[in-house]
Automatic annotation (TrEMBL):
<dbReference type="InterPro" id="IPR013249">
    <property type="entry name" value="RNA_pol_sigma70_r4_t2"/>
</dbReference>
<dbReference type="Pfam" id="PF08281">
    <property type="entry name" value="Sigma70_r4_2"/>
</dbReference>
<keyword id="KW-0805">Transcription regulation</keyword>
<dbReference type="InterPro" id="IPR007627">
    <property type="entry name" value="RNA_pol_sigma70_r2"/>
</dbReference>
<dbReference type="GO" id="GO:0016987">
    <property type="term" value="F:sigma factor activity"/>
</dbReference>
<keyword id="KW-0238">DNA-binding</keyword>
<dbReference type="InterPro" id="IPR000838">
    <property type="entry name" value="RNA_pol_sigma70_ECF_CS"/>
</dbReference>
<dbReference type="GO" id="GO:0006352">
    <property type="term" value="P:DNA-templated transcription initiation"/>
</dbReference>
<feature type="domain" description="RNA polymerase sigma-70 region 2">
    <location>
        <begin position="9"/>
        <end position="75"/>
    </location>
</feature>
<comment type="similarity">
    <text>Belongs to the sigma-70 factor family. ECF subfamily.</text>
</comment>
<protein>
    <recommendedName>
        <fullName>RNA polymerase sigma factor</fullName>
    </recommendedName>
</protein>
<dbReference type="InterPro" id="IPR014284">
    <property type="entry name" value="RNA_pol_sigma-70_dom"/>
</dbReference>
<dbReference type="Pfam" id="PF04542">
    <property type="entry name" value="Sigma70_r2"/>
</dbReference>
<dbReference type="GO" id="GO:0003677">
    <property type="term" value="F:DNA binding"/>
</dbReference>
<feature type="domain" description="RNA polymerase sigma factor 70 region 4 type 2">
    <location>
        <begin position="116"/>
        <end position="162"/>
    </location>
</feature>
<keyword id="KW-0804">Transcription</keyword>
<dbReference type="GO" id="GO:0006950">
    <property type="term" value="P:response to stress"/>
</dbReference>
Length: 171
């Protein structure tokens, strides 16, 4: 694989690799590090890339990097050292958000994320990209290799399912 081709792959699949990592580890900063590790590993082992299957190959490397990260002893130690209020303090200081707003937005995100996790394929994947990662319909269609109309239909159905889930939780 040439350096130019590899740079094209990084441009083309960079956001997808980040999304895969972020969905698995749930931390944007760590997902960025894992995406970089993914591309480093891909560059070092470029000779193993099956022709025409670059997207799937990169996604598999990213998923494996994220899973390894989740299993690491370092991550377990760091997570155990932090208290439940650490995230809230960081949010309030970094963005000058009131504690009430930070808790409300965190709770809303947790509710939406939980609802999306309860969806079945393909609605789960499309919803995560749209609602959590803020991809446009056009970007999702390109990433997943599906027509725009299909993505719109899947989002419409996912919204309906999410509304049903939320209505059941409120009732």
């Amino acid at each position: 694989m040439t350096q130019e081709r590899f740079e094209e792959m990084v441009e083309q699949y960079g956001r997808l690799v980040f999304t895969v990592c972020n969905q698995l580890v749930g931390d944007a900063g760590q997902a960025e590090d894992l995406a970089q590790e993914t591309f480093l590993s891909a560059w070092l082992h470029a000779d193993r890339c099956p022709e025409g299957a670059e997207k799937a190959w990169l996604c598999r490397i990213a998923a494996n990097k994220a899973k390894d990260c989740l299993k690491s002893a370092y991550r377990r130690r760091v997570a155990a050292a932090g208290g439940p209020g650490d995230w809230l303090e960081g949010q309030a200081c970094a963005e000058e958000v009131s504690p009430e707003d930070a808790v409300a937005s965190q709770e809303t995100l947790r509710t939406v994320r939980g609802g999306i996790e309860g969806l079945r394929a393909p609605y789960k994947e499309v919803s995560a990209l749209f609602f959590l990662e803020n991809y446009s319909v056009a970007e999702i269609a390109q990433l997943l290799g599906r027509p725009h109309k299909t993505i719109n239909t899947q989002l419409y159905r996912a919204k309906s399912m999410l509304r049903g889930q939320l209505a059941a939780q409120v009732a």
